[in-house]
């Protein structure tokens, strides 16, 4: 199995190198495909992302484990006896995908990371009307932070943000900048935005 993975990786690298590449870039890198998140309860996570956030479930697969060897450690850097019970991918509007993992592992920890913790992160969703998003989240009983908070100065002026949390503590954000942000006026590189679907 390891040889098959190595061969597939080599083939992918060769094919990717045929595409467009720029200096100081992973050959063939085109964009952000997904963010992976480990969740404590897969049903709860799928329900939250589909019934509250509005994503759509695309596929589920698994389990994956290696009772006798170190495949899980070699491939993913986890405990050799870790088990991925299920992987589910959801598509969220015009943005990239979210990959949900349900793991069990001998050394598993519940980190509940804050944005200030090293390795902490959040997932942001662009919304057209952030005030309506706040009202909707409140109605659904979702924990929200202060806001919506409009940014009025600096390069990010023009955006409004609102942080909220999934039931298991995952940090999320609603963000809106219908008229763009101040930095865009003189920027050589403009951030990708899901507010206007690509044709």
Automatic annotation (TrEMBL):
One Pfam short name: Glyoxalase
Record keyword Lyase present: yes
Lyase recorded as keyword: yes
A biological process term (GO) from this entry: L-methylmalonyl-CoA metabolic process
Gene Ontology molecular function: any one: lyase activity
Coiled coil, from the record: none
Signal peptide span: 1-23
UniProt KW keywords: Dioxygenase, Lyase, Metal-binding, Oxidoreductase, Signal
InterPro entries to which the protein is assigned, alphabetical: Glyas_Bleomycin-R_OHBP_Dase (IPR029068), Glyas_Fos-R_dOase_dom (IPR004360), MMCE/EMCE_epimerase (IPR051785), VOC_core (IPR037523)
Name of the featured protein: Catechol 2,3-dioxygenase-like lactoylglutathione lyase family enzyme
The organism of origin for this protein: Mesorhizobium tianshanense
